[in-house]
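ok so for the tutorial part 2 we go from a plain amino acid sequence to predicted structure tokens. step 1 is just haveing the sequence, like this:
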Amino acid sequence: MKKLFYIFPLMSVLLMTFGCQEWGTEVPTYAKWDGRIATDYAGGKGTEKNPYIIQTGGQLLYALKEGSGHLRLVSDIDLNHHNWKSFDFSGILDGAGHTISNLTIDRSDEDYCGLIRRLSSRSSSTGIVKNLTICGVNIKGSQNVGTIAGEADQNSSISDCRVVLTSGSRVYGSGNYVGGIVGATSTSIAHCSVISTNDSVYITGADNVGGIVGHTLNSSSSIKDCHASCNISGKDELGGIVGKFYGNNNIEECSFQGAIYGKEKLGGIVGNIGNYTNIVACKTEVHIEGDEIIGGICGDAYHGEIIACYSDGSISSQVDYNAGGITGHGGYNFVIRLCYSTMSHGIDGYSAKLEDCCTVYSSRNIAERFSDAYSDYASYWNFDNTWTWIGTVDDTERSVECPRLAWEENEDLLN
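step 2 — the prediction. this is what the tokens look like for a chain of 415 residues:
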């Protein structure tokens, strides 16, 4: 497997410098888990106003095994590389800004592996995980594998969570549905990130593998303001944010930086769209290698739209006619509006309908061109916050002014 050569320089340097310290994982010695389960909580009643208090790994395991209640971390926890056992959970886990470090799961024959096995597995209950960082992850399972949860159903939500993959980390499933945050989900994922500090670390599975989510399971799913900087490998339907997206909701304001290695239906944001979905205001800085149906934003899609997105990077494809900087293959009902790409493969590989799209090879000033186009969509861009692409076009070096997305100006993935 090739190592990633196309990585975010600033983010990578910062995280390599500070490691888990930057994420608050310098934990007191007493917080290191000894591998045993506790017999009670540190306090609380399990209600919203008086949650169960969690301050050790043993208490966290006890709470998740109990399966419900409102939990709140009051300190960082070092799980100390002991082999974690996942349980179904239908309560609320509030990390309160704290960090769980050194989560290890080595259960190659088990499905549903993660800090939580299945989130909200009871149809009448709501499962929530929020405000939590997990740093230093080593997970090996079979199918439905994710750092926060193996699966999250439609009564659950995951928000404001971060996963930091340090040297030696991995999120690995021998089967399908593998994600940096959750393996498979039927609900919304918002304000989450997966950041790798080392270019040898991969999120790996067979099919349906993503930097945030492996596979969304129904039309209730949505992904907003999620960002991944990592490497992804597998076979088919791999995406920087989600491997396969099945739903009628949007993927909005997401970004991916890294490399993707697979066979078919590979995309910088999503590998394959299985229903009517819009991808809105997303960006990638990506290198993708595969056989065919490869896109800088989306590999394969039949219904929906890609609106105000851009891709930077490169594609190595065995079949070039269905590889493109935005989509590899788009059905006759699929439209790409006001998007641009720096990739030499152009905008789309096959069949998508294009409206006001361009590449650095066809425009000397994309920012100026977009500022006059489609006023309803131009608001997605910040024409005062541009970056300059420098490359060779027709044997001549060219500088092209490219706009950034509106949300990028104040975005800081390290916070």
